[in-house]
Amino acid sequence: MTNKEFTYCPWCGVVLVEAELDGKVRKHCPKCDYINYRNPIPAAGAIIDNGQGILLVKRKYPPYIGDWCFPAGFMEYGESPQHCCIRELKEETGLDIKLKALFNVYAGHDDPRTRAVLILYLADADSFEPIPGDDALEAEYFQFDKIPSNIAFASHRQAIKEYLDYKQTGRLPKQNNG
Ligand SMILES: [Zn+2]
What is the pTM of this model? Predict the structure, then answer.
C-alpha cells in the first residue's frame, strides 16, 4: 500500500504507458487489459464517548508515530465498513463495540501510504477499560477540554472538532458538498 505508482504491469510485467482513459491520464498495459486506476482505500473507525471524554489511541507505527487518533484502520478485501470498524476497535483497544450511527465520512489526503476515505461511526463499548493492542501504543479517554494537540491526520482533527460541536448541539455534521 503506497502512493507510489507502478512502472511495470503488476499482471504481466510489461512497462506501463500513459493514455487518456475515461477523461483522465492513466497508466495502462499495452499488452494485457490492466489499467492502473488509483482509488483511495476505505478505512473505518469509531468515536467512543464514556460521558467524560473520547477514546483515542497513540500510534505505534508510521506515519505520525506517537500522535493520537481515533481507533480506525483500513478495510480488508471482502469486509464491510461496519465489520472493519468492529474488528479494528477490538484489535487496537480490546473493546467489543456496538455501532450506533454513522457520524461522517472524510477524505484523507495526508497519509503518505495512500489516499484514504475514513468512515467514522458513533459506537458504544462493552466496557470503559481499553487495553492497547496491535498498532496502538496507548488507548486512553481524553476529557473534552484535554484532547492532545498532536492528533494524526487532518480528517481526525476535523472529526474531533465536529464531534465537540455535536456534543453541544446534538446535530450531526452538515454535508458541505466539499
Ligand atoms: Zn499487463
Answer: 0.91
Query: Could you say which of 88, 138, 140, 162 is catalytic?
Result: 138
At 19 the pLDDT is 92
The alpha carbon of residue 21 and the mean position of all alpha carbons in its chain are separated, in whole angstroms, by 29
Q: What is the CATH number of the domain that holds 145?
A: 3.90.79.10
Q: What is the pLDDT of residues 77-101, one digit of tens each?
A: 999 999 999 999 999 999 999 999 9
Q: Is 162 inside any structural domain?
A: yes
103, 158: one domain: yes
Q: What is the mean pLDDT of residues 126-140?
A: 88
Please tell me whether residues 59 and 138 are part of one structural domain. yes
- Rounded to the nearest angstrom, the distance between the alpha carbon of 128 and the centre of ligand 1 is 51
- Determine whether 92 is an active site residue: no
CA of 13 to the centre of ligand 1 (A): 6
Segments forming the whole domain that contains residue 30: 1-38
14 shares its domain with 89: no
| Distance from C-alpha of 141 to C-alpha of 114, rounded to nearest angstrom | 28
